[in-house]
Design brief:
Blueprint: H1 7-20, H2 23-28, E1 30-38, E2 42-46, H3 48-61, E3 65-75, E4 78-87, E5 90-102, E6 105-112
Parallel strand pairs: 1-6
Antiparallel strand pairs: 1-2, 3-4, 4-5, 5-6
Length: 113
């Protein structure tokens, strides 16, 4: 892991973009070949363009959707978040998300729902 990468700032930018539903800023936090997996290792999306298309559709369907981090742990270039999903402030789900960071971009996301 690079010493110059501020993981907290990267993840904050990622979550802020998610909550603004700002697709361009959201995918900018990802590496070009980023992968999103559903536990236990099922590839769901790969690459910025498919990820952008997916989240554009999701946020259009559910414009009130937001995420907050209830707890964060870090081990080298991995960040583990317990996340709370909300619609209009009401909790609808909790999940654990593991972020793998390379070259100061999110390379892989694993979600446990």
């Amino acid at each position: 892991m690079e010493a110059l990468c501020d993981l907290e700032a990267l993840l904050q930018a990622h979550n802020d973009a998610w909550n603004r539903h700002d697709v361009a800023a959201f995918v900018e936090t990802l590496s070009p070949d980023a992968e999103i997996y559903a536990f236990p290792g099922t590839l769901q999306l790969k690459g910025r363009e498919p990820i952008a298309a997916h989240f554009t559709q999701l946020w259009a369907k559910v414009p009130e959707l937001s995420v907050t981090v209830a707890h964060r742990s870090r081990l080298e270039n991995h960040v583990v978040d317990e996340e709370v999903l909300r619609i209009n402030g009401q909790e609808i789900a909790r999940e654990v998300t593991v972020y793998q960071v390379e070259a100061c971009h999110i390379r892989r996301i694993d979600t446990i729902e």
